[in-house]
Structure formats: C-alpha cells, structure tokens
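quick q for whoever's on today - can somebody do inverse folding on this one?? i tried earlier but teh output was garbage lol. tokens:
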C-alpha cells in the first residue's frame, strides 16, 4: 500500500492559496521543515479554527471574531455614513488609511453577469434594511474601479438615491507619487473626470 509523499502533499495544499504557485508553496514547505514541529502545529491549529472562530456581523456583514464586529460595536463612529465594499479585506485596507470614521457594509462581491453574479447574490438586501431602519444618510461606494465595480456602484445608486440616501463614490485616478507621463490612459481619464475645485 503506497502512501502519499507528505512533502508533495503539503506543497499541493499550500499551492491552493491565491497568489501562491508551486515554487512558493515548496519554499514554504521547506521552511516549515526547518522550524520546530510546534510551529507547523500552531499554524495548522490557527487555520483549522478559522471557520469555527469567525462570525458574520449581523449589521455590516463583515467577518470578525464577534457579532457585532469591533467596528460596529465602536461607539464614536459616524453611524450615518456607511462605506460599501466588495470584500472583508477591503474594510481592513480602508481602516488602515484612518480616513473613514463611519461604518461599513460588505457586499461579498460585485455584479458580474459573465460569472453568474447578479444583485440577488450580493448582500444588498441587508444594506436596504439598514436604510429602512434610518441608519443611512450617506453611502460611500468603494467598489473596485473595474467594470464589475462600476456596474455595482451604478446599481446601488439607482436603489439608494430614491430612498433619500446621498451616494458618493471613491475618486479614482492617478496615484499619489506617480508621474503623469507614466500613468496609464484609464487612470489619466479617471483623474480628469474626478477633478475637483481648489
């Protein structure tokens, strides 16, 4: 009876992570072999506990260790301004900027007909419940600056504006520190469209 090579099996499993190819997975596996055995056990335990230890926030649909999540539970935040994002990791990125002091709403994706994702597959119903409870005065749409993100933003605006919610969208354009001559055409076009008065 032949057994699977543990190293090859570990490489194959590690390569399942997004952005990790076989070579990187192999480096990770060899790194684990050089560590004391308890390091691999701690990593395995932490990964194994993810599903059981994380919850979906009943307010913003973010994934956190508690319900409500720490952001929704924080008192000094502006409850009337909600930043709408595609993924939980987008919340973390915006939080690192320290520029948004409101709350969040996680859609769990973007409208993408080619991938079979319509509005009913997103957490839009939960957002509308927040509107009907009077929580929302402004929705800051922070979906990705791509076709799917733009379609989702336009769809949300068509739902929220008639309900009296102010709808804004993150500005897109040339990144800070980029020389204009090296910016791509789409970024330059968006920067011109999103210009503001000084």
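ok took a stab at it. sequence:
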């Amino acid at each position: 009876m032949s057994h699977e090579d543990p190293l090859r099996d570990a490489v194959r499993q590690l390569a399942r992570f997004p952005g990790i190819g076989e070579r990187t997975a192999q480096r990770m596996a060899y790194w684990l072999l050089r560590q004391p055995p308890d390091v691999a056990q701690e990593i395995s335990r932490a990964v194994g506990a993810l599903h059981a230890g994380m919850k979906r926030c009943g307010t913003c649909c973010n994934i956190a260790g508690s319900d409500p999540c720490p952001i929704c539970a924080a008192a000094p935040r502006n409850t009337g301004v909600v930043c709408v994002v595609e993924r939980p990791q987008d919340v973390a990125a915006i939080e690192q900027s320290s520029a948004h002091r409101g709350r969040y709403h996680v859609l769990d994706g973007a409208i993408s007909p080619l991938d079979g994702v319509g509005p009913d597959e997103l957490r839009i119903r939960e957002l509308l419940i927040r509107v009907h409870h009077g929580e929302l005065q402004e929705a800051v749409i922070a979906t990705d600056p791509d076709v799917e993100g733009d379609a989702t933003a336009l769809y949300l605006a068509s739902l929220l504006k008639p309900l009296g919610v102010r709808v804004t969208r993150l500005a897109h354009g040339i990144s800070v520190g980029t020389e204009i001559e090296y910016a791509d055409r789409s970024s330059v076009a968006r920067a011109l469209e999103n210009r503001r008065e000084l």
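fwiw Strands lie at 55-56, 63-64, 78-85, 102-106, 138-141, 166-169. also The chain has nine helices and six strands. so keep that in mind when u check it
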